Each structure stands twice: as C-alpha cells, then as structure tokens.
Amino acid sequence: MTVVLIVALLTGAILFGIGVYGALSQTNLVMIMMGVEVMLAGAMVNLVAFWRFLHPEAYSGQMFVLVVMTVMALEMAVGFGVAIARFRAKGSVEMEEAEDLKG
Amino acid sequence: MTVAIVLLALLGSAWLLAVIEGWMTTGRLSPAAPLYSGLAHLGRESIVPRSPDRVFFEAAPVLLLVVAVLGMAVLPLAPDLIIADLGTGALFINAALAYVLVAVIMAGWGPDGAYAMIGGWRFLGQLIAYSMLIVMPITAVAMRAESLVNTAIVSSQAGLWNIVYQPLGFVLFFIAAMALAFRAPFDLPTAEGDLGGGVDAEYTGVRLAVLRLARLTLVVTLASATTVFYLGGWHGPLFPPWAWSLVKTLAVAVSMLLVGRYLPRIREADLMRWCWILGIPLALVNIIIVGLLILVVP
Amino acid sequence: MYAQAFFVAVFGLAAIGFGVVVFRTSSMVRSALALLFSQTAVGCMFLAMQTEFLGVLQIMMMATEMSIMAIFMVMFMMDPGGLGGMDMSHQKRFSIGAGVSAAVVAIAVALLSDWGPVAEQVPDAEAQTRALGMELLGRSMMIFETAGITILTAMIAATAVAIPVKNLASKDNKEASE
Amino acid sequence: MSSDLTINSTGARQKRPSLLQKLVSRALARNLSCLIVPGPEVALAHGLDIRAAGLRISTTPRDASVLMIVGDISEKMCDAVAVLYAQMPRPRAILLVGGQTPSTLPGADISSGLSQDQLTEAVGRLERAFADGAFVDSPEEFDSSVLHARIEYVCPMHPEVVEDEPGSCPKCGMDLVAREAGESTPDHEHHHDHEHHRHEHEHYHDQEQQSHHDHEHHHDHQHHHDHKHQHGESDDHSEHEHSGHDHGEHDHSGHDHEEHDHGGHDHGASGFMSMIEVTKDLPRSADGLQMDWLEVPFGPVFPGLPGGLKLTLTLDGDGVTEGQATSLVGMATEGEGSEESQESEGSQESEEMDADTFIEHLASAIPLAPVSYRLLACLAIEQAAGLSDDQATTQARNSALERERIASHLGWLAQSGRQLGFAWLTQRASTLQLKVRDAGRDRIAELEPELRTLGTRLERTPLLKSRLKGIGVLPVDSSDLRGPVARAAEDGGDAWARLWQRLDEIAASLELLKSGEEPELPVLRDIGNASGTGKATVDTPRGEARLSLKLEHGKVKSYKLDTACSHHIDLVPKLVEGQELGDALLAVGSLDLSPWEVIS
Lengths: 103, 298, 178, 600
What we know:
The complex is a heterotetramer of chains A (103), B (298), C (178) and D (600). Chain A is mostly helical and 103 residues long.
C-alpha cells in the first residue's frame, strides 16, 4: 500500500512543481492563476493521499481538501474581479505592464 | 448484462424521442425515420471546417454522448437495474452534467465559426441560470432521503413521491433540466433564428449523427434523473419496476420535447434575471421547506 | 492494491500531462481546458484512492470553474495571447529552477520519509460521506461556516471590484495625475 | 432535367464498394431535407407546401441535401447560392422550382414548375435520383469563381511587400504569409483581419470556405490566431507568421526569447509586445471593456430573416454594436437595356414595355405581394389611359388585396415563428396561409374562426409578451413609416405592438372580405393605344406603395416606384444598435421587410 501512497505523493510533488513554474513564469494574470490552481491541485492530491493511507479515521483530512477547493474558488472569484478591474482601467492584465504595482 | 439492458433502454428511448421529434417537424409518425436518418447521416459527407480546432471539434459530440451515458449509469431503472450504484450518485449526476457545458463550449470553439462560437459562449453565460437550479433541488431531494445514493433516494419516495413532497423543487429541476439539455424554448446555444444552428451549425454527416444522438440521450438521462428524484423512480402498482421507470422517463422526456413546440424562445437576459431573482431564492426556500418538513414530520 | 496503484499512476500521469499542456500550448481555450482535464484527472485520482465524495466534487466543481476560466482567457488575452511572436512568459530560468527545486524537495520528502504503517481499508463511500457530513457539521463547523462566509464576501468583493466605475470623469482625472 | 435520374457529379459522393451503399442511398432518398432559396416564406407565398411534398425544411446548408431554388433569383443571390451549395455535404442536389439555373451553379438536377403537383412529382424524381445516383465513380469538385479569392503573399513585417508567389521577404527574409487579395490592408487602425487562416485551404475539402451562409469569413482575432498557432506548433519558423497582425505600428522586431529571460523589466526596449498597445485601439464595449468586435453576416439565406435580406452586424460578444441591412433581391435595375436610376427614390427608365408585360414584370418581381403590385400597376396604367373607376372591378380587386393582406400577415407570422423557435406558430400560420392564399369568399368565411383563434392563442402564449415587449422600439423621430409599422407606432412601436397590429389587420380584412365582392385577380382593362401619365397608390400589406408611370401608345415608357420597405430598411441600423443579438434580429424581423420591395 505504501507504493500507492508514494505514487500519489510523487504526482502531487510534480504537479506542485509545474504549478510553481507556471505561476512564476507566466506574465498574464489569468495564466498565473492557472499556475496557482495547479499548485493547489498538487497539494490536494497529497492531502487526499495522507487521509486515505495514513489517517482514514480523521475526517478533518477530507475537510481540509474541501477548504482547499473553497480557496480555489475564492482565488478565481477575486482574481477575475481584479482582472476585470485592471483590464478596464489599463487594457491589459499582463504583469509585465503592471508598473504601477511595483513597490 | 445490466450494462447492456440499461444501454438498450437508453437507445430505445432515444429512438422513441427521435420518432416524436420527426413527427413534430414533418407531421408524420414514422417508426423507421430515425433509422433512415441515421443511415443517411452515415452516407453524407462529414465536413471539417476550414480552420478548426481539430481536437475540440472532434471531441465535442463524443464528450456530450459520453456524459449523457455516464449520467444514466448511476440512475436506477429498478432496485438492482443500475450500472453503478455509487455512494455519491446524486452528486455524480451533477458532475456528469457539468461536462455538458464543457462539450458545448468545445463544440462552439472547435469549428471556428462565428455562430457556433457565440452559441458556445452563450451557454456558458447561462451557467448560473441552470446549474444552480440543478444542484439546489437535488440537495433538497438528498436531504429527504438522507443519502446521496440514488437507489436510496428512490426508496425514500416509497410512500410519497417527491413531486408531491417538494413540488417547487420539481418545477425548478424540470425547467433547469430543459435548459441544460438546451431544448426549446431554452435552445439558446443552437437557436436557429438567431444563430442559424449555433453550435450544431458546422457539424455534418457522422459527427452530426453523434451530436443528435447525444442530445437525445441527454434528454433521456435528464428525464430519467427527474423520474428518480421526483417521480418515485420504479415505484408503481401492477407493472414491474423497470416498466414504471421507463414509462415515467419517457413521459417526462416527451413533455420536455412538446413544451418547446408551444413556446417562443426565451430571452437570454430574461432567463438569467428570472433565475437569479426567482429561481435561486425559490430553490433556497424549497430547501428550507424540506428541512422543516423533515424536522416536523417524523 | 496493484490495481489501485495502477489507476492512481495513470490518472496521476494524465494530470501531469495536462498540467504541462496548460503552459505549453498557446491557445487560451486549450490552456483552460487542459487545466480542466488536469483537475478532472486529479478528481479521478481521488476516486482511485477511494475518496469518492471529494473526487466527484472535484470533477464537478472544476468543470464550471475552468469553463469560466476559458472565457476570461479569451477576454483578456485578446489577440496576442502568446501569439504574434510575443512570449508570454518571463524569468523562465528562474521559474524552471523554482519549479524543479520545489518538486525535487517534495519528491525527496516523499521518498525519504518513513510513512509508517499504511491503512489497508477505508470505509465505503456512503459511510465516508456520512462521516464527512458529521465532521462538517460537528467539529469543523466553524471552519466550514467561515469558508462559506468567506466565499460570500469574496463574491461580493469581486463583483464590486469588477463592475464599471460609474464616475468615469473623476477616474480619468485620477489616472492622468498618476 | 436529367433523364437517367442521377445527381450531377458535383453533388454526388465518391462511390466505394460497399454492401451498405445501396441501403444508405435508399436512406438518403427517404431523408431529404431542403434548404430553400431565397427562403421558405417565398415558397409559401407561391403556394408551395414543402412538407406535404415530402421534403423536410432545413435551416442550414450543413444539414441539407437538396438546394431548392424557388423562382428566379438575382445576380447577387446567385453568388450566395453557389456558396450555400458548396457548404452542403455531399450527396447533394439542386431542385429548381420555376426558375432558371443560376449561372454560378452546375445544371439543376431536377426542375419543376411552380405548383404543388409539379413539386410533389419532382420530389418523387429527386428521391429516385438519390436512390440511384447518390454515389458515382468520379465525383467532381464543385468549383465556381465566387468561391475563390486571389491569394497573395505578404510579409508580416513589411506590409509593402506583396508577392503572388510564396517565398521569403526580400527585406527581412521572413516567410511570406498568404492572404486573400483585397482584404485588410495592414495600416488600418483595427479591424477584423481575415487573412490568417487562409493558407490552410488545401488541408480540407472544397467546402469549408465560408463561415456559414455567406461567403465572407468573419472570425475574430483571437479565434483564428489561436488555431493558427496550433497548426504552427510543430515547426519553428511558423513563429514568425504569427507576428503579422495588422497592428502595423507595433514593434515586432525582437522575438528573441533570450531577451525576456532576465526578468524582462525593460520591456520598453525589448521586443515585448505590449497588451496595452494592442488593446488601446480596440473599441470599448458598453461595459467599458476593450474587446474585439466581430463582423458577422446574417443572410441572405438565414433562418431568422426573410430570404434575400442580408444583415451585417458588428457583434460585441452577444451584443450588436452596429448593423446594416441590404437587399440582394431588391427591385434592382435588372435587364431591360439602359436603365439608370434618376433619383434615390428608385425610378426606372426601362425600354418601352408592353403594359401587360409591365404588370407581369412588376408582379413577378415581388413574390411576397404580387397581387398588390399587380393592382398598383393596373391602377396606374388605367389612370394614365384615362379610364374611370368601375365599381364592381374595384371591389373585387380590393377583396383580392385584402385577401393577400391576410395571407401576407400569416406569412409574416410563420416567419416570426421560425425566428422565435416557435414551431407551433410557424406550422399553424403557414397552413392557414396556404389555405387563405387563393380561397374564395366562402372559404375564407369558413376559415375565419381558425384565424381568430390564432390571435387568442398568441395572447395566451407564455413568454411571448416578455419576448416581444420593448423590442425594436422605433426611434421617436422616425419618419416615412408606412403600413402596419406606422400604425403600430402609436401603440408603443415595439415588436409586440406590431404583432397585434397585424393580427388586428387580419381581423379587419376579414370583415372587409365578408362585406365585399368575391376576390378577383386584377386584370388590366383594355386601354387601347392610349398615352398619358398615371399615378397610383396601393396600401400593400407592408405599407403604401406609390407608382407613377408614363404611358405612350399603350406602352410603359418609364415608371417610378416607391415602396414602404425601401424606407423601412433604413430603420435597421437604429433598431439593432446596442441590442442583444436575439433582440436585434427580432426587431428587424418585426418590420416585415420584404427585400424584394427594396428599391436599390
């Protein structure tokens, strides 16, 4: 059974890596959000694997996944809200062009 | 075996609907018409538009068909006549139906045509209108059954069908189901008068045949879901359970088809407004009423 | 067990494959739908790991979420969208480095840790759903409710941010003074 | 007419040895669906019941196997028809009903006269043709000049470089990109460039030209750019092709990815193509977002619009930002020697025409209201000849006019039903129209209850009022309104009011018919060899039409026609602007424009 756990964890790790790459390398706000979603998916895989193979009696594990899903939805809602506002004001959601956001 | 029976029932129902649809458009009731129509589609050329997104263009009709069949797989025709009695069957239906949207978007984007694209995005635009009204009434149904298992949902209606127990939910679900199957008067993504066929417009030949079959199957699946959730599934006197399931499903499906004939297409803005202002609050009220009933009536 | 390992691996590979496609394709709609299928594959992994409720929920939620993503992609990325010779990515090496190191660290932890005894059996889906419901409305109710309120807040906030500014004139002045 | 009853080779499909083939052919023959050109309403006006003849009416060319051409069609329509034919999947056939073969098409497979019997018989032949000849050994490509646009090759970087052959740019060495000649020139501010998908021509069948129903391609930017990139993913240098949008002013020079690698903060200097630059020129939608607009043609053969009317709408998503209507079948200056329109009002100076010929000409040019125009011509000529009114004839003629008014309004109802996806209305109204079309007074009296229930039913139809109320409200200052549109203007002036106006007119006409004479087709009285000028006005179903003409020795020397639809068509831009697509089309539909009566 450990094999399955390891497989799941590896998948989670790789998905997380892809997400990190995406979130950092993309210049477009929407694409960055996609990167974050992939990262969260990686995290969820791990959480489910942990729940299933290590603590199937603790349902807070599943609860945690639900919260992550909520976070994904939140991220989308807020992200798109911001994206629309920026697009309306600047005509672009490219991070390269977000000079005004630089500290 | 079960798989074969359910698929056969699905196909048979789709055939019946096709006959009725043919009767509505040509005025002739010809049992062989769907067969000829299918063969004719095979004989026709299947045109690929000039610069399609090939993957989406090809995948969309198939995805729609698969989704409809998957949805049917978790709906019981009789206590033991169900392909997969999932522990989360009621939720699974939602999940499967969510991909109708994906298929329509793919069909809209794939062919690279303006009409199709507008149709696809239109369907996405209507998302809140129908998807919330699918999910929330099902929630109330699951509350009464205290289970997400579809067979348990049917069993919970042994004494009183849900259409009586929560008529509000039934009405909302029926309307939302029609909108989800994009049948008239909710045929916004395929509107002929507005979009010359919309997402259907660029499909020909075999692909069109698959698409048509998928759309009919989707109606059957949704009708079957209505039966399971609201019309007491297989319950009924005299006849064997599967017969009751079939009869009810077909009745719902035919009524879905007929309603559209006598109504003009709804305005998108109206659909959206009514769903937000009326539909969703009513669905919440339905949940509250059912909750109260469960608490009050033992 | 092998069957389970097989399915988890297959869906895992699918998730990874589609995940890569997300950032490799230049079509915005393809990007969004690749992400959708990646997330669906993740949902299938949940199913393979006998976590039915979460799996189905994941599959359901992502369909709508990513479709919405698709339309926003088309809206905001307009015509360039990584086309027209415009490179949509930046700090590539750094990103690859960061991505690879994050993955490597996680993999190392996964491989090197001693995970101890592994549960062989889990309750069936129905029991799980019931138990999860109990958890939601029992011990974790606070979290659950907080999540609900947060979603509501986010919805309102996002809508407020997104609707057009009524007073365009004053906004333009502000922009000009910037 | 082919004697061996096969489909001509541009319509048949490649024969493949298969046992199924015979069966499939039979199925094809039993499953004929036709696309009617110019439109089903014309077929109805000619009294053809397509369904009774055994054909299914298809709304799109993609779903049709028979191209049915009713009556003679104009030059402009010929081009559109060729495109439609090309879009239909093989096996396909052409059915000519009472007209000539359009020059752009191969010969008709089956032709028939303009009557129900002949049509039914022709459909029988068509079925046999499909059963026997749907598959042939050597199908031909359907090729017509209208399907081709000259392809030229331009350098994405240097708009001035235009070559006839593919190759590389003499200035920068980049591969040249194919585009259709006469299309967008790169220095426009922004518009919808169509050229980017052209070089994929050879990949697919011969059919795929057009975005549906018309031969203009209107894809939006992102859409096909997107696809193109997909195609180009395999080869590296295709990267260059993508750089050639016609945002000519932007800097495309540095596609070198290396430059971005280190953070890319210096985007001003690097090759980074700014989104701000790209979007700043784009039009802003009503909601303030800069979006690409899409110019989409609707028509000339579009299920929601009268055939022959071409509506070009600029769409911003599902909303219409601007629109324009043109008629492809309008009373143009066809044939008849050297005509020049003297005024925009639409006057025609044709060669001398015999008075009877003139009447026939006018009546056949307007298939949707032939009786009215026949009457109009008769009146004008008789006045020119100095004949005084004859009580009995006038009454009979007026009865015929009222009967046509009922039929025409029913036809409009059927058309609205098509547009609204209201199948019941379409079927009911067209059945009634066929019955009323040449009914006598007694027959109409029999039909009266049915006609009146139609109104009651419509009143009780849910959703209909909310669909039509407030749609297509005419601008307050609109002048030159005539007919039902004008009469409904006092009543709110929206589509709902126009629907009721027409229903009321049906009722009023019924009353007039009941008290009037037996309807009789207007026939010109003997005018001898008279000369003079005449003027007449007839209240046609779509509004007043005025005709003035000059008669010399019993021949029509010149005439001037003024119709309601020529004025109404100018309302279209105002009606569609800022509306949602469905509402805009409904608004146009509610005007009951007859493209035939538009004088160009």
